[in-house]
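Exam review. A common question shows you a sequence with its structure tokens and asks you to describe the fold in words. Practice with the pair below. Do the first one on your own.
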Amino acid sequence: MWASLVVVFGALIIVWGGTYLFQRWQMHHYATVIDEDQFARGIHKAQVVDVRQDNDFRKGHILGARNIPYAYLTQQYSELRKDMPVYLYDAGTTAVIQAARVLYKHGYRDLYILAGGYLEWHGKTKKDKYAD
């Protein structure tokens, strides 16, 4: 019995580790991950896109960001210019990796992801006064 639990636990660790490594590879393959300081320095020369859901965006977002939720990005990617850098963020890094993949597949190459996402952002933000 213990042997089967060890095998199952080991398999779960391997799957989790493989998923984590694959996501890290995707993130670095499709975009450049930058820290908060780099993001803040380049924010005025880039298109800043928040890929979180609209209600999260209204509760608070990086000043100057536009909201294109990941679920709508496949229809709205053409609203972004290919000749300007695109700075992406979400709450963490899950949806933003997929967003970077979508944009990369549509020819966007100057893509940057905020390390840690909005949850780690300490710069200027804006909040909708009617948000919850």
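Now try the second one, then compare your answer with the model answer below.
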Amino acid sequence: MKAHIVFDSAYGNTKAIAEAIAQDLRPIRAAAVSVTDFNPGNLSVGDLLIVGSPINGWRPTPKITELLGQLGNGKLEGIKAAAFDTRVRFFIHGDAAKKMTKLLKEGGANIISAPAPFYVQGTEGPLRGGELEKAADWVRSLASALEQKGAP
């Protein structure tokens, strides 16, 4: 099994979370890759696909939305998946992770986690204190879900 952490990032915050997730997923072969560099042909049955995006106009970025659209119609059958977003802590905001999770599920992926939000300071960041630790906790929950589903 390989883990593909695919992200889009405007100011580097989503990239930082994606890289932390890839690092924390060891010993699984994991790599964080920009959505522009990701090759969907590298996905194999049994792999883990994690998708991350900043909230952009109340939703994932257009590049992430386009990728997930290409992976629709059952192309994610046999793939385990999860999604996260980066956002400003505000009384009202979008939920890109929830929208990405819905698209992953519509593509046939087996969703192994609730969508995860990670918070930035201001509109450009940096990440708020404790968010990388929160990402490590999320990875532990992903690893537990993989074990329960019989993944190596």
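Model answer, second protein: The domain at 2-148 is CATH 3.40.50.360 (Rossmann fold). DSSP finds four helices and six strands in the chain. Full marks require stating both points clearly.
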